[in-house]
Amino acid sequence: MKYMNKSMMLVAGGMLALASCTEYSDYNSAPEDGNPLANKTLMENISENAQLQNFATIVNNAGCADILNNARVFTLWAPLDGTYDATQFLNMDSANVMDKFIKQHLAEYSHQVVGTVNSRVATMNLKHHDFTNTTFDDVEIKDVNIPASNGIMHTLNGVVEYRPNLYEYLDIVEGCDSFADYIHQYDVYSIDKSKSVIGPMVNGQQTYKDTVWTKSNSVMKTILHADLANEDSTYTLLIPTNNAWKNAKTTMSPSYNYITDFYYVDLSKVSAELSTYKANDAGTIGKSDEKIKIVPGFQKDTLMNTHILRNLVYSNTNERNNPIVSGVVTETDTLFSTSSRKVTSIDNFIKNTVGEIEEMSNGYVRHLSDIGYYPWESYERVLSFTKPGRVYGVPSGTKAGEEVEVLQTKVTDETWGEEFDDGKLDFLKRWLMPNGSSYLKYFGTDATMISGSARAEMDFYIKNAMATKYRVYVVFVPETLKESTTPVTVKDCQWTFGLSTHKTDGTPTLGFYKKGATLDYTDGTFENTSYDANTGVVKKTALENEKIHVVDFDVEFPICYENTDASPILFVQNTAPTRNPTRYDRNLRIAGVFCVPYSALDYVKTLKYEK
C-alpha cells in the first residue's frame, strides 16, 4: 500500500544568533557588488544565464518563479544544463518538483564561499547537506558567489540527489506493507496553529486560510523511541518483508497462548503457608476479586508486533552500532536498539539483508527476508526476581506480605558453592553482582522471630511468564555471609518448593511441592535437576551451608501471562524440623530467582555481552 504525504512542506525560517550585527547582516543580506547581476533577482539571473535554461524552464513550468523573485534572502545551488537529466523534472508534478528539486537546491540566508567552508546546510525542504568550498552534498561546485538582489547563487556540475527520510520512505517501500501499514495506522495529523494563517470564524469554529499540518506517530514515540522523520538524526532501520513479518509472528505464536479469563492467586489475600494447601485447594487460596479478562487475539497480536518493532531501529551516533552499517562483526559485538534492547543477532541481520543497503536522508535501510532475532532478545526474555512478593514467617507484629530487610554482604571467590566450579553458572554471578561489585544483596528472614512451628516462606511472582519452558535458578545465601559482630553457628538446612499456576483451560493448580504425595501439575511439566525428586527436599549439611548455593529445576507453563496482572507464584520454604532448632538453620536468605527460557539456555552459559 502506498501513502500520500499529507503534510505540507514548510518554508524553513528562523533567527540565527550571531556574534555581531555585522555578521548577522552578512548572513541575512544579499552581498553588495558592482556586478550588474547583483541588481537582479535570482529568478532573473537564471533566466538570463545560457547555462541554466533547463533550470529556469523547470521552475517556470512548476509555477514557482515567485519564490526566486521574493525579497527574502536565499542561497541557490543551481545545476548547470547538460550535467543532469532535466526531463525527469519537466515531467514531474509541481508539488514534487517544488519539494524534490527546487527546495532541494534552495536555502534561506546567504551561504557564501569565503575562507574555509565546512558546514551543514538545511535546504528549504528541510534536508541537510554538507557544504564545502568545492562541493555541495558531494556534487562539484563550478562557480561560486554569484550575487543577486535577493541572495547568492553557486552553480553545480550535477543535481543533488533527493533522498526521503526513513519515515517518508515508508510511503514508497515495496513488499513491506505489513510493517509500513502497522506504523501508519498510528499516524496523527493536527493543525500547527502557530504556523497557520488564521481565517474567519465559521459556526463558532476557527478556520485557517493557509493551514499547516503536522504529523506525529505514537509507535515511533512509545515503541521505537526514534523519530524517523527527524532530518537531524541518523538511524539504521531494519524493514522486514511481508514474509519475514508473517514468519516472525508464526514463530512467536506458541509462546502467546492466552486464555480468555481466569482467577489467580493474590498473595495479599494469603495468610498461611502455601505449602499447607492441597492441590484441590488451588482454586480457592488467595483467590483474586476479579477475573483476568483478555481478548486473546488482540493481546497476542499487539505484543508480538511490539516485540518485533523494538529491535528494528539503531542510532548511528552510537559507535557500538557501527557493525549494522559496516557489516563488519566481531564475536562480542552487541547492538543497542533505540528501545534500549541489547541485540547480538547481527550476523543474522547481515545474512538476511535483501539487496543493497539503501541510503536515506537521515540514515540507512536494510530489508530483511527473515528477522533473525534470537527469542531471548525479543519475546522470550530472561526473567529475574530479587524481591519476593510475600514473606511468611516474619517478626511478630509484621503483616504477612511485607518485605523483610534487604541485607548486603561481601562475597569472595571462596564463598561460591561447588555448583559454580565449572564456570557454567558464571552468568548468575554477573547478574547478582554487576560491574564487578563484590557486594551481594539479598532478602532474609530471622528465625528467632518466627513463632511456634511456622516455617519461613518466600513467595515470588513470576511476572510476564510466557507459555514456554524455563530453567529456574534459585540462589540461596548462607547466614555466615551476614556481616555481624555476633558469632554465627553454621547449621544444617533444607528447602522445598511449590508452584501456583494454571492449566490450559485456566483452572488454578498447585504443583511439585512434595509432602507425602505429589501435587497435581497437569498441563505443564516439571523436572527436578538438583534435588531429590522423591521428597522434593534440598538438604545441605552445615559444611555445605557455608557457601552460596543454587537450586535449579525446569518448568513449562501452559499459558502466557505477559502484560497481565496474573502470574505463576513460586513458593520456597525452609522445611527444617522445628523440634531441633540447635541443629537446623530455620532462615531463608534468597538473592534471586532467575527464569531462563530454554531457547536461551545454551547462550547464557557462555554470555558474550560486552560488560
Please characterize this protein's 3D structure.
This protein is an alpha+beta fold and 611 residues long. Helix content is 18%, strand content 26%. The strands form ten sheets. Strands 21, 23, 24, 26, 29, 31 and 33 form a seven-stranded antiparallel β-sheet that branches. Strand 10 (197-202) and strand 11 (205-210) form a beta hairpin. Helix 2 (42-48) packs across helix 3 (53-61) and helix 10 (242-252) packs across helix 11 (296-309). The chain is elongated. The model is unreliable at 1-27 and 515-523 (pLDDT under 50).
Summarize the structure.
This protein is an alpha+beta fold and 611 residues long. Strands 21, 23, 24, 26, 29, 31 and 33 form a seven-stranded antiparallel beta sheet that branches. Strands 22, 25, 27, 28, 30 and 32 form a six-stranded antiparallel beta sheet that branches. Strands 2-1-8-7 form a four-stranded mixed beta sheet, covered by helices on one side.
Label this structure with key terms:
alpha+beta, 6-stranded antiparallel β-sheet, 611 residues, disordered N terminus, 15 helices, 7-stranded antiparallel β-sheet, 18% helix
